[in-house]
Design brief:
Elements: H1 2-15, E1 27-31, E2 39-40, E3 46-47, H2 49-61, E4 65-69, H3 72-81, E5 85-91, E6 101-108, E7 111-115, E8 134-138, H4 142-148, E9 153-157, H5 162-168, E10 174-178, H6 181-189, E11 195-200, E12 205-210, H7 216-231, H8 234-239
Parallel strand pairs: 1-4, 1-5, 8-9, 8-10
Antiparallel strand pairs: 2-3, 5-12, 6-12, 7-10, 7-11
Helix pairs in contact: 2-7
């Protein structure tokens, strides 16, 4: 109860910000640790590829926005309930479609299956090939939701940071994750012997998922501005700072 009260109090404090009469109300943009798309950077600030995209987008829209790093499940839940709140980088799934209004896509985010030094040495050409094995994912993740439709044996952690350790220790057989995120987690944990064995859901993209009370005109305007950012090269300049690396 105390944790719930604290979260609600914090949300109210963040959302209540004085603004000039007639000016657009501030937005709360929630995200989670998901490098390199969103992560803590220098001076205890939230950064990352999609964070920079969101910041540039709201600056163009002249809408004030406060960005906060929250646990993913909580961020999704709050954005679905609180006015002027969005969550990113969010995969647009059928289950989530009507829970939010969508701005994007922000960036492609294909998923990949990684093996570790203790993984079974098998030929993998499709997800069904790993059906007898334990696949690591995490709660509230789109990857986990997608894999569950393939009737795989999933070991769900509270966040994806735990899965490289699980894979290194042989407690899972394979790790399903983002092709962007995996190299960062592998490098951070100084893991060795990890290698990608299957890329899947290559048409996956991330979005800004906003509360359904956000005006349709605002969503349309944000999508129009995002399209202009694609056309004038602003998005490419941001993406160029985050080179995709695959670590073996």
């Amino acid at each position: 109860m105390r944790a719930k009260f604290s979260a609600c109090w914090l949300l109210g404090a963040l959302l209540w910000q004085p603004h000039a009469w007639g000016a657009p109300p501030p937005f709360l943009l929630l995200t989670d640790y998901y490098p390199p798309l969103s992560m803590m950077v220098a001076n205890n600030q939230v950064g990352g590829l999609t964070t920079e995209l969101a910041q540039a987008l709201f600056q163009r829209a002249k809408i004030p926005a406060h960005i906060k790093l929250w646990p993913w499940a909580a961020a999704l839940a709050v954005a679905a309930k609180a006015n002027n709140t969005c969550v990113y980088p969010t995969t647009r799934t059928p289950k989530r479609e009507t829970l939010y209004k969508w701005v994007g896509p922000l960036t492609a985010d294909p998923w990949v299956l990684y093996a570790g030094p203790l993984s079974p040495k098998i030929k993998i050409t499709r997800l069904e090939d790993v059906a007898p094995y334990r696949i690591g994912s995490y709660s509230s993740s789109a990857e986990g939701q997608y894999l569950s439709t393939h009737h795989l044996t999933l070991a769900m952690e509270s966040d994806d940071e735990a899965n490289p350790r699980m894979l290194a220790g042989g407690r899972i057989d394979f790790w399903a994750t983002s092709i962007y995120r995996a190299p960062y987690e592998i490098q951070k944990g100084k893991f060795h012997g990890f290698y990608p064995v299957l890329m899947f859901k290559t048409d996956n993209y991330t979005y800004l998922a906003c509360n359904t009370t956000v005006a349709d005109s605002t969503i349309t305007h944000l999508n129009q501005l995002l399209q202009r950012m694609r056309q004038d090269g602003a998005i490419d300049k941001i993406r160029a700072r985050y080179a995709l690396r695959v670590v073996h």
